[in-house]
Every structure is written in C-alpha cells, then in structure tokens.
Design a protein that fits this description.
Chain lengths: ~200, ~55
C-alpha cells in the first residue's frame, strides 16, 4: 500500500483574482483547510500567547507561530513540508523563485487599533507576503478593512476588502505595494502573515 | 475552549469581499483612519516596515 500523502493545510489556496497593477497581488476566498480554520480561531481566542507590541507608530498583538506551542490540530501549519508546499504555490502564483525561509506571524487587532498606509518594502528583506483572515464574522460597522492603494496617497484607493474569515491576499512586495488596515471598531480581527524571501536570502 | 459551529464563518464568506462605498462620509472616515496622522513630518510609508521588524525576526 502506498504511504499516505502528508496533510496539506494549504490545499485550498488557489488565486481567484489576480492583478498586475497597481502592484502584483492575488486574492482568494479560501486558503486553509476548513477544520484548520476552526481550530486555529478557537486557539487564537483562548490559548495563543499574544504579546502587545507598541511603538510610536502602531500597536497590535502578535507572536511568531514557530515559537509557539501549537495544539496538535494546527501544528501542521508550520511544518517544513507544509511551508514548502505553500512556498511552491506562491512561486507558481507569481512566477518568482523564493528561498527556503518562510516566516509565519499571527496578528490580532482589537477595537481601536489600525495599521496606517505602508508598503512592506525593506531593502534585502522579504519579497512576498500572504495574509489570511480569521474572525467570527465582522460586520461592516466593525471596520478592519484591508485597503489597497494606487500610490502612497491614502485618497488614491485601489480596493477596499472586507476581512472575510478564510479569505487571503498574496502580494509581491515593492515600493508600490501600498496597503493599510482601517480601524477596528468591534470584534477581534486575526491574521496569519506569511513572509517569503528571495532565493539568495539565507535567513533562518 | 470556545468551540462554536463554523457556520458563522461560512455565512461571512458569502459576502462580497469588495466594499463599494457610495457614502462619501464613510469613505472619508476610512481614509482618515489609515492616514499616518500619528507621525509628525513627511510621509514615510516604510515606517511600519521598520518598526514591525524590530519585533519580528
């Protein structure tokens, strides 16, 4: 009997909308296995080791998934074989080669918190990002919209995306990849943020 | 541990992902929320990038 293939928590990831402008990105309404979404959300709400990070520019709760003691039900999210498979999907989506290192950070926004416009660009840093939304269902009045811009002008809006749980956005980081998260007014907004690097980046 | 049915999540997924704002007041409020209003000086869209990486390896 052939050995069972390892469970791929990212098997649902398939871009449903692909754009080349104002920067290269895709969006999709599903990424994680549904049973994984439920288990992860429950752990985010009641067991995850959130740390409040405050700077003079923003505040949010976050932690590195690779440092956390993950429940068995979600441990495969950060297994090397799963992250290899995810990286391959990102490479296929963008036609870009990516390095082995994949960073996985969890974010939580509470009411009152927001992330102002920025582009994620760092010289020698990450080259691609994937963000996955998780929540119990946020209404428009709750805010927390993912906003994409045509330029560094906040008035120059490209799209405003609802933080629908399970949906995901992948993008290539560039000086043009301007985005932001509007203020959360109600509920909790969780995000898994995956960072990918170029093939020559030896970060581990 | 909370273990609500996942129906809530699936219901939400049926929403259109794009928010089309015809209300200019609501749009102005969103724009104000993502402006770098807490930072003095010229616009620097790399500020978040650098502060974020002070806390993440």
């Amino acid at each position: 009997m052939a050995p069972l293939a390892p469970f791929d928590p990212y098997q649902r990831l398939a871009p449903s909308h692909v754009a080349a402008a104002p920067f290269r990105y895709f969006s999709t309404d599903g990424c994680l296995a549904l049973e994984m979404e439920a288990a992860l959300l429950a752990w985010f709400e009641h067991g995850a080791p959130w740390t409040l990070v405050e700077t003079d520019f923003y505040e949010q709760f976050e932690f590195d998934m690779r440092d956390a003691d993950l429940p068995d039900a979600i441990a495969s999210l950060v297994s090397p074989v799963s992250l290899d498979a995810l990286r391959a999907k990102m490479e296929a989506a963008f036609g870009d080669a990516l390095g082995n290192h994949v960073q996985v950070v969890a974010h939580r926004l509470d009411p009152g918190q927001r992330i102002a416009i920025h582009n994620d660009m760092r010289q020698g840093g990450e080259t691609h990002r994937l963000t996955v939304q998780l929540n119990r269902g946020l209404a428009d009045d709750d805010g927390g919209f993912f906003m994409l811009f045509n330029s560094d002008d906040v008035n120059d809006i490209h799209r405003i995306l609802r933080p629908i749980s399970g949906s995901a956005i992948g993008f290539a980081i560039s000086p043009a990849s301007h985005h932001a998260v509007s203020r959360l007014h109600g509920g909790e907004r969780f995000t898994l943020v995956y960072s990918f690097y170029g093939p020559d980046n030896g970060q581990s | 541990m909370r273990n609500d049915p996942i129906d809530t999540i699936r219901d939400a997924r049926r929403q259109a992902i794009d928010l089309e704002l015809s209300d200019s007041i609501a749009l102005k409020r969103l724009i104000a929320e993502v402006r770098q209003q807490d930072h003095d000086g010229p616009l620097d869209v790399t500020l978040y990038n650098r502060t974020y990486h002070r806390h993440n390896r």
